[in-house]
Write a structure and sequence with these properties.
By secondary structure, this protein is α/β, with parallel strands linked by helices. 42% of the residues lie in helices and 17% in strands. Keywords: Activator, ATP-binding, Coiled coil, DNA-binding, Nucleotide-binding, Transcription, Transcription regulation.
Length: 517
Amino acid sequence: MENASPDLVSALKTLAHVAGRLPQGPEFLPTALDALAGVVPYDLAAVLRLDRGRLRVVCARGPLADERVKAHSIALASFPSVREALDSGLTRVMLEADHREGDGDPYDGVLDLPHGHSCMVVPLQGGGRPLGALTFDRASCGPFDALTVILATLYGQLIALAWMASEQRTHLEHQRDQLEAENRLLRTEVVGAEDAGSLIERTHSPAMQRTVRLARQVAPTDSAVLLSGETGTGKEVLARAIHEWSRRADKPFLKVNCAALPENLVESELFGHTKGAFSGAVQPRPGRFQMAHGGTLLLDEVGDLPLAAQAKLLRVLQEGAFEPVGSDRSVVVDVRILAATNVNLEQAVAEGRFRADLYYRLNVFPLHLPALRDRREDLRLLAEDFLYRRARRTGMGPWRLSERGAARLQAHPWTGNVRELINVLERATILAPQGDLDLEDVLADARPAGEEPAAGVPAPPEGSLRAVERRAILQALEASRGKVYGPGGAAQRLGLKPTTLQSRMKKLGIARVQGFR
């Protein structure tokens, strides 16, 4: 510094003074460019962010900084000289030959500046990678002088450091908000059965063993899985097991019931929103995708997702990015998607209620969960596991399933599947604080609501196989609202041909189910 010119010493002092007064937070860029006007003269100064091969203006100051400039972006492939500056980390001063014969100024076509005007590109680097560029333009002709170039380069390094610090601070605040949101979510909702994988791996039925084997194969991948099956078959438990067996096991597992979300809040719940995005949005809130970053998100009842949200979900699956409600900035997430449904999505696609492209994105690896009546070998295992967990959770019990109780489980039709089984066992543990459960009270023979026997056909004796079969058919008809044929019909629920079911209904005196003719 002993041999430095007075102008350089004075300029460096000014630069140090300006740098020391830069504010923290995202608002530092306008202040930084305004302060720089006293050191590097300009008519336009802009900071551009590097984003997937393009430089996009994020801040522009000066007399030439109009709305066209602020919305401007350039493809690096079209500006080799700018790309070379970013790759080398060296400031590039545009000369008259560059404007006349080279790739031109980054604002050509946006600003009407004369050939040979003052133009300079300062690369911004941080953490060993290019962040973007700092550009200066003046309407006057002739290049920036050497001292100005040195000062602009030094200031660019300071801006890059401040920019990196600002981004890191924003990232840490986002992580903090995400953790707080996760904690709130975990405190307010039941996440699911613990150690789901160990339970379903002990299954005895061949149909369920096959499903578990396939789930084990797909779990280590990041492929989307579509879980189908009747209501109450345990789709959430299998989804949790897939998460446990994946490389994301130590990351969040979240679920969202698409059918339970109000249509006007679906996008906010899934993708989050900014402050003021809509009435009542008094503060920004991350959505389920942000909270599940790095982990797994289960979209339960995905067939009930509104079409508008389906389009946004499709983009997340394709690009891993979305915009929160009220924001124009993309959020990039890494989330493994599992979807569950008890409706026929192919039929929903045919009826225009579900996007075909989204269906094929979700249906990469379909898994079907069999109904409980098709896996009766697992009844005792499921019942004993529930009783053990309930005793441990409540401090009551212990309870044991008696042989009579096990036999009654086998005879019941279980049209409500595992969910019905859990409800039955919970009622039984309320009626009997501890000891053996024979389930006589909770599975007492009773005519289902709506049953109206056919005239002239006597009801079969209670407790007989015909009575059990009759009750199963009536419950299937009630669950299907009297529908016999087609998807969701009683025949499909019972695993019978419709003609076979109608024949058995006639023999058992089941003429109709009242209210569902």
